[in-house]
Amino acid sequence: MTDSSDGTTVAARIVLAVDPHKASWTAAVVDHTHRRLGQLRVPASREGYRQLRRLAGRWPAASLTWAVEGAHGLGLPLVERLTADGIPVVDVPAKLSARVRLLATGTAARPTSPMPSQPRSRR
């Protein structure tokens, strides 16, 4: 299956997602089925950036999308380095990431008692 926007196949799509913190960057690489292909935690530094780029180098650049949470906040130093190297970055808003984490843990609000499938008739 080919995606008409850039000619790459959907199966070839890889996302390198980075969760930035003050002192470190945590990265996870997933394919189009959300299967984890790699994971790495590095210091938020020049050496950490080199390690992330080495991780990314395991996949063809044309099929790799960089996604950084909070690209205008804690992720800004990483985004600046990537864009300076000509690498496009997708910003993942922190609120969206928080919601995804909440849903992934299964702790999102849900009813405490089952709802009846049909209203009860009065007799």
Jot down its keywords.
five-stranded mixed beta sheet; globular; 123 residues; alpha/beta; Nucleotidyltransferase, domain 5; 26% helix
How helical, in percent, are the residues? Answer: 25-40%
Can you tell me the residue ranges where pLDDT is under 50 for at least 5 consecutive residues? 111-119
- For the biggest β-sheet, the strand order reads 3-2-1-4-5
Kindly state the mean pLDDT as a whole number?
80
CATH topology: Nucleotidyltransferase, domain 5
**Biggest β-sheet description:** 5 strands, mixed
Global shape: globular
Q: Note the total helix count.
A: 3
Number of structural domains: 1
Radius of gyration: 20 Å
**CATH superfamily membership:** ATPase, nucleotide binding domain
CATH architecture: 2-Layer Sandwich
Beta percentage is 25-35%
Question: Can you lay out the helices and strands and say which pair or pack?
Answer:
Blueprint: E1 14-20, E2 24-31, E3 36-43, H1 46-56, E4 64-69, H2 76-84, E5 89-92, H3 94-105
Parallel strand pairs: 1-4, 4-5
Antiparallel strand pairs: 1-2, 2-3
Please tell me about this protein's structure.
By secondary structure, this protein is α/β, with parallel strands linked by helices. The protein has a single domain (10-105), classed as 2-Layer Sandwich (Nucleotidyltransferase, domain 5), CATH 3.30.420. Helix content is 26%, strand content 27%. The protein contains 3 helices and 5 strands; from the N terminus they run βββαβαβα. The chain has helices spanning 46-56, 76-84, 94-105, and strands at residues 14-20, 24-31, 36-43, 64-69, 89-92. The chain has a 5-stranded mixed beta sheet. Mean pLDDT is 80; it is low at 111-119.
